[in-house]
Design brief:
The structure holds 2 protein chains of 2 kinds. Chain A contains 7 helices and 9 strands. Chain A has helices at 40-48, 90-94, 96-100, 105-118, 134-146, 164-180, 192-198; strands at 2-11, 14-24, 29-33, 55-60, 63-64, 75-78, 152-156, 185-189, 201-204. In chain A, the strands form 2 sheets. A 5-stranded parallel sheet of chain A has the order 6-7-8-3-9, with helices on both faces. In chain A, a hairpin with a 2-residue loop joins strand 1 (2-11) and strand 2. In chain A, helix 4 crosses helix 5 (134-146). By secondary structure, chain B is an all-alpha fold. Chain B folds into 2 domains: 15-49 and 332-542, Orthogonal Bundle (MetI-like fold), CATH 1.10.3720; 52-303, MetI-like fold (Orthogonal Bundle). Chain B has 24 helices and 4 strands. In chain B, strand 1 and strand 2 (310-311) form a beta hairpin. The chains are: A alpha/beta, B mainly alpha. The A-B interface holds A 45, 48-52, 69-77, 79, 81, 83, 85-87, 96-97, 99-101, 130, 144-145, 148, 150, 154 and B 159, 161-162, 164-173, 175, 179-180, 183-184, 262-266, 274-276.
Chain lengths: 205, 542
């Protein structure tokens, strides 16, 4: 279970988060809803370990991980604008997390193939990420985050910037995928419909 | 029928046909007489039967080549290593004094090589003088700016979330650096390495002052052969050999840079340090960099004020005369060299600004044919100053072109070195002028020529001031070409500094440091004033 307790973040004089608390149960998909500028992304970054909070603590499975560096938290994140590594192929992007753990090449290749299959892009491993369409890039980003089997997956507005039809199709796929992989996930969005479609529970910030 | 209408339509707003040739004629003649002709003379010396074999079989040539190569490689590797942390901190973090630190890092790069050499003579212990490590340390100090600027510029636009993504995938800081940051910075690292290698491979001023007779670079050896041994053919062979090496390095590096290029979108804005670790090491790196950049310069000035282990103004007081003690003259009048330098710099600046300005206007107005002049004017940039000086020395020594005694030969050489920088500074400004501005002037009743004068020529005035500052700084500090063209009694400051520091005795040494301090302040002032004036122009135009 993921728990954020009394998180406070200040940027200069502005209080972006003021004693905000939140929990996500195992296998649960929670949507964090709210207008822009309310600190949703900031909360995700604190949980991921990318930003040090001014107050509060983060707990994962009963352990305090507040001061644990991002790469030891086993918390994956899908970024709003994908942030695929432009110098690596699709396959190398998806396998990145496993390679960082020095997993054997054969195992990495098998897991990459499995995940590309899962997100509906079989055979894409050799492609260049710079030549992908918007929807394809989002699927690759999702596969990349799931590959190292994170304990929690954070999704920061993962479906923005797509046209309506593609957005709806990807939202359906994402909801099915998170269920199929039994992933514990926290999703940030400003779209009520999207939140209702994907999440088990909606929290408004 | 339609064809002729098209032609008329295009001709309607065209600049007069004579304009481009009229603009290009002076730069073209200057380039042909002062660059191409000397270069051909040099080549002619080289292809004479036996001269190549004779020059390369001379004792010590292999040693000079080897030393030049390995010190350049070592300097390049060390500069990249040393410049990496300041490049990161300056590109990624916002902190008080950031602009000042950026200036402090950039200043040494603008300084004359002789000043840097003098500063490290003042700073390093006696046991380091005349050693390879002294040369390498000075090269690192001189070129850190290249790494900070080139690598930093790329680092500043590297999306911060890209490294964040790697961390959420389980990459440790070392893994992020190795698997994400370094591969993405590779084009900038290559570019910086190439530039630093070229500068250090052709190092003359700092190498001559610090390496001494025991560690001559190729440039130092060329100058020694031509001016001390009278072996002009041998010097010519080594110059051409050096040109070939430079050409190969530039070609090879351009290929690698193209291959390493990666596109990425987004920007990583600099930010304040937030985590505790950042708050500790960002100021540490910034402070260490500032100290490292300013210490040699401060020590240079303080050493000019010390004689016999005591503070003394004697060196400064005696700057005005060639006599160290009554009746004993050293033949170098420091203060006179100052006057000479400023006079020559004024002429060189006018020349390079005039020729560079005309050339830039011609290149832009001529479109396709401008390429030729563009490339031609960049050639002196790829030719070492010593090669330029040597070429001029052996070309202009026979009547009716015996110009060795002509006062304008040195400023002509300086202008040749400085003009490419003037052209580089002006071209981006001229190319950024939208064609619509000239069209707008035309609709207001201006003839094509008037429109061109009102838009293009006016626009180029402010950046021309900045370029003039750059040209003046280059001329004030020019050492390589001047070594060949200088005549006794009319030394420039860098020549006088090198002579004074080459002497034994405390007074001339302290005088050398004093004169180097003056040159340091003068160069820094010229560059700063010009860049402030130039920037203000940019702001008011926008």
């Amino acid at each position: 279970m993921l728990e954020a307790r009394d998180i406070t973040v200040r940027f200069g004089d502005r209080r972006v988060l003021d004693s905000t608390s939140l929990h996500v149960g195992d296998g649960e998909v929670v949507a964090l809803l709210g207008p822009s500028g309310v600190g949703k992304s900031t909360l995700l970054r604190v949980i991921a370990g990318l930003l040090t909070a001014d107050g509060g603590s983060v707990w994962l499975d009963g352990t305090d991980i507040t001061v644990l560096p991002a790469h030891r938290r086993s918390i994956g994140m899908v970024f709003q604008d994908e942030q695929l590594f432009p110098h690596l192929s699709v396959g190398a992007n998806v396998g990145f997390g496993l390679r960082m753990q020095r997993v054997a090449h054969g195992v990495v290749a098998a897991r990459v193939a499995e995940l590309l299959e899962l997100v509906g892009l079989p055979g894409f491993a050799g492609r260049q990420v710079t030549k992908l369409s918007g929807g394809e890039a989002k699927r690759v980003a999702l596969a990349r985050s799931l590959a190292p089997r994170p304990k929690v997956l954070l999704l920061d507005e993962p479906l923005t910037g797509l046209d309506r039809e593609l957005h709806d199709r990807l939202a359906t796929d994402l909801a099915a995928l998170l269920r199929a992989t039994d992933t514990t996930a926290l999703l940030v969005t400003h779209d009520h419909e999207e939140a209702a479609k994907i999440a088990d529970r909606v929290v408004t910030l | 029928m339609a064809g002729s209408v098209e032609r008329d339509r295009a001709a309607l707003n065209r600049l007069p046909r004579w304009l481009v040739p009229a603009l290009a004629v002076l730069p073209a003649i200057g380039l042909a007489v002062f660059y191409l002709w000397p270069l051909l003379t040099l080549l002619q010396r080289v292809v004479q039967p036996g001269s190549i074999g004779h020059a390369l079989s001379a004792p010590g040539v292999a040693r000079v080549l080897w030393f030049t190569l390995w010190q350049a490689l070592a300097s390049t590797a060390l500069t990249l290593a040393v410049g990496f942390a300041p490049a990161y901190v300056l590109a990624r973090y916002r902190f008080p004094g950031r602009r000042a630190l950026l200036a402090a890092v950039t200043v040494p790069f603008m300084l004359p090589t002789v000043v840097v050499g003098a500063a490290f003579l003042a700073l390093l212990p006696q046991s380091w003088h005349g050693t390879a490590r002294a040369v390498i340390v000075a090269h690192v100090f001189f070129n850190v700016a290249v790494v900070v600027r080139l690598v930093g510029a790329m680092w500043a636009v590297l999306p911060t979330d890209l490294t964040a993504a790697a961390r959420t995938l389980g990459a440790s800081p070392a893994q992020v650096l190795r698997h994400v940051v370094l591969p993405l910075l590779r084009p900038a690292l290559w570019a910086a390495a190439t530039v630093v290698f070229l500068f250090t491979f052709t190092s003359f001023g700092a190498a001559r002052l610090l390496g001494g007779a025991a560690n001559p670079t190729l440039e130092v050896e060329i100058a020694r052969r031509a001016t001390q041994l009278g072996d002009v053919d041998g010097a010519a062979v080594l110059s051409v050999l050096q040109l070939l090496v430079l050409a190969v390095v530039v070609w090879w590096s351009a290929r690698w840079q193209r291959r390493a290029a990666v596109q990425f979108a987004g920007v990583g804005a600099p930010r304040r340090s937030r985590s505790r670790a950042e708050r500790r090491w960002v100021p540490t790196v910034a402070a260490a960099t500032a100290v490292a950049m300013l210490t040699p310069l401060a020590v240079l000035i303080s050493r000019s004020l010390r004689l016999g282990g005591r503070w003394s103004l004697a060196a400064w007081r005696t700057l005005g005369s060639a006599e160290v003690r009554p009746g004993i003259s050293l033949g170098v009048d420091p203060l006179a060299s100052l006057v000479t330098s400023f006079r020559l710099a004024a002429v060189a600046t006018v020349l390079s600004v005039a020729i560079g300005g005309l050339a830039a206007l011609a290149i832009v107005s001529a479109h396709r044919h401008g390429r030729l002049l563009d490339v031609g004017l960049m050639l002196p940039l790829g030719t070492s100053a010593v090669t330029i000086g040597l070429g001029m020395l052996i070309t202009f020594d026979t009547a009716p072109f015996d110009w060795r005694a002509a006062w304008w030969l040195i400023p002509a050489g300086h202008a040749l070195v400085a003009t490419p920088f003037v052209v580089r500074a002006l071209l981006p400004v001229l190319r950024s002028i939208p064609a619509d501005q000239r069209a707008a002037a035309a609709t207001l009743g201006a003839s094509p020529l008037r429109a061109w004068l009102a838009v293009d020529v006016r626009r180029v005035m402010r950046p021309l001031v900045a370029a003039a500052g750059l040209a003046a700084a280059i001329s004030l500090g020019e050492f390589g070409a001047t070594t060949f063209l200088t005549r006794s009694g009319r030394e420039t400051m860098p020549i006088a500094i090198a002579r004074l520091l080459g002497r034994t005795g405390q007074v001339p040494r302290a005088q050398g440091f004093a004169l180097a301090s003056i040159l340091l302040v003068a160069t820094a002032a010229v560059v700063m004033v010009a860049s402030v004036l130039g920037e203000r122009g940019g702001a008011s135009d926008a």
